[in-house]
Design a protein that fits this description.
64 residues; alpha+beta; 2 helices
Length: 64
Amino acid sequence: MDDDRCVEVKNEAEICHRLKHKHIVELLETYSNDGLLYMVFELLVHFLLEYLSTSLNGCLLYYL
């Protein structure tokens, strides 16, 4: 990964760390090893499709 892209990814990770909202998956930790960046997010118990189907009374809109 080139230096510009590396800086960009680190900035994105920092922004993710700062995002705290009940509707946004929280980034818990980041670390790097052998030139790779690992991002650890909170565990989601439900799938988005499952949540939408129950919260919208089974009415889903599909966009292509």
